[in-house]
Design a protein that fits this description.
By secondary structure, the protein is of the alpha/beta class. It has twelve helices and 17 strands. The longest helix is centred in the middle third of the chain and has 22 residues. The termini are far apart.
Length: 476
């Protein structure tokens, strides 16, 4: 049974720093600015031999006016409700503040296993604050330095106790062998594996990493909330609410989909604040982590320059992509608008000819099934593999219908082609003079690959190499 540990406290006490320390990676944004974290983030934490789920939360603000701070507070209270162990963090150097005292009252009413953590306790300046922390009523505070990794042994003891208690509870609730029903077990069929190892194949049931990207206020967080069926991420009319890239696991049609919400990305010239630069960098890393990227457009202002820049970035990273036009419920003449969007897509993104385009409404939850069908379809094409024999028959036909141009009075000879890898489909073409093959002819071949082998909208890599066809004796 997995134990869930939530790190809570007022803003700027070091919650995300401890979260990164427990996870072992810098996946939460950290800055001196208060209020960096807004959504709750979860990951697998570890201390020594212990494994547990750890939740990072927004800094607690005592607001109930419907503002952004109020919505952040609600997300923190959800984390408190779901957690088995609460690490209530204060700044030991600053001492106990009035906001710490009000938050302590909230935690006492929650009835959870709360442990007081005095962070930034690496020097003697923290001693008065640690003594003052006794007044909060949670017993002896744990002196900790999340930045330097001091005090983790005490955290190990806290989490270990919770893990043991959860294991005892699970054992007590588990049915005895006499109560277990008899079931028939189907042995797996022969999958072609040998002593050298298993045969590697694309598994359509494995988890899928999907990143949602777009400009600020395009509706990325709202869409993910509708997909998972709960208010998992902060939303609102304010642009730029999301800062961290948040991974949200979701079960769809028997498959785990790791949805990644990202910060809205503006043009580079408009990014001034250090915190926004960190958020955009985090979003760019999410694109590299993803297998399929959903580029979310605003139906009222689609295909802005920044949208096209993001699409080009995804193509250069070699990720499969689906274009989702959000806020479709606000469009009046839907047929005319859809025809216009498809024409713009073909004109603005020729490098992704045939890319799927789906109209949705994240607010109303419309066409989410169509979006998922498009995601699965483009993922399958992204994993396409073409046999060498089929490739070379196709190459022969392409060169017969449109031979390579002569360069410096000498005809280029395309000798042989093979697929080097998938994800994205990547091909090696052996030619007599690879450096002389024009880019226009390479685009001709790439578009031909898309049409002939059913890979519309998929990034395709074509590498031209020198050398002879190893199977053509006349070249030797």
């Amino acid at each position: 049974m997995t134990v869930t540990v939530a790190i809570v406290g007022r803003p700027n006490v070091g919650k995300s720093t401890l979260f990164n320390r427990l996870v072992g990676r810098r996946i939460a944004l950290v800055d001196d600015t208060p209020g960096v974290t807004r959504d709750r983030r979860e990951a697998e934490g570890r201390i020594g031999d212990l494994r547990f789920k750890v939740l990072d939360t927004a800094g607690y603000e005592d607001k109930t006016d419907g503002s952004l701070e109020d919505r952040m507070r609600q997300q923190t209270e959800i984390a408190i409700r779901d957690a088995d162990v609460i690490l209530f963090m204060i700044d030991a150097k600053a001492g106990v503040t009035p906001l710490d005292e009000r938050f302590a009252q909230v935690l006492r009413r929650a009835g959870k296993d709360v442990h007081l953590i005095g962070n930034k306790a690496e020097g003697k300046a923290a001693d008065p604050g640690l003594l003052e922390a006794y007044n909060l009523g949670f017993g002896e505070p744990v002196a900790l330095s999340a930045e330097h990794g001091l005090g983790l042994a005490d955290l190990h003891a806290i989490v270990s106790k919770a893990v043991d208690a959860a294991a005892e509870k699970a054992e007590a609730e588990a049915p005895s062998l006499d109560q277990m029903p008899e079931v028939d077990v189907d042995l797996p069929e022969d999958d072609g594996s040998t002593e050298e190892g298993p045969v590697k194949r694309w598994d359509p049931k494995r988890h899928l990493n999907v990143a949602i990207i777009g400009r600020p206020n395009a509706g990325k967080s709202t869409l993910i909330n509708r997909m998972v069926g709960e208010e998992r991420l902060l939303t609102g009319p304010e642009a730029g609410i999301t800062r961290d890239s948040i991974l949200v696991p979701w079960e769809y049609d028997g498959r785990t989909i790791n949805l990644v919400d990202t910060a809205g990305m503006r043009r580079k010239a408009r990014i001034e604040a250090k915190l926004e630069k960190l958020a955009v960098s985090d979003s760019l890393r999410s694109i590299q982590y993803a297998e399929v990227v959903v580029l979310l457009l605003d139906a009222q202002i689609p295909f802005e320059k920044q949208d096209l820049t993001l699409a080009d970035l995804v193509e250069r990273e070699g990720r499969a992509m689906v274009i989702a036009v959000n806020k479709w419920d606000t469009v009046e003449d839907k047929n005319a608008k859809l025809a216009e969007l498809r024409e713009q897509c073909e004109r603005f993104l020729p490098q992704l000819k045939g890319i799927p385009l789906v109209t949705i409404s994240g607010l109303q939850g419309r066409n989410i099934d169509k979006l998922m069908q498009a995601i699965f379809a483009i993922e399958r094409k992204w994993n396409s593999h073409v046999s060498t024999a089929r490739l070379n028959r196709w190459l022969s036909g392409m060169t017969e219908s449109h031979p390579p141009p002569a360069v410096s009075g000498r005809r280029l000879k395309l000798r042989y082609m093979t697929q080097a890898k998938i994800r994205p489909p990547s091909f090696i073409l052996f030619a007599s003079r690879p450096e002389a093959l024009p880019h226009a002819y390479q685009r001709y071949l790439i578009n031909g690959l898309r049409d002939a082998f059913d890979m519309p909208g998929t990034p395709i890599r074509l590498w031209v190499r020198g050398g002879k066809n190893p199977f053509d004796k006349s070249d030797k």
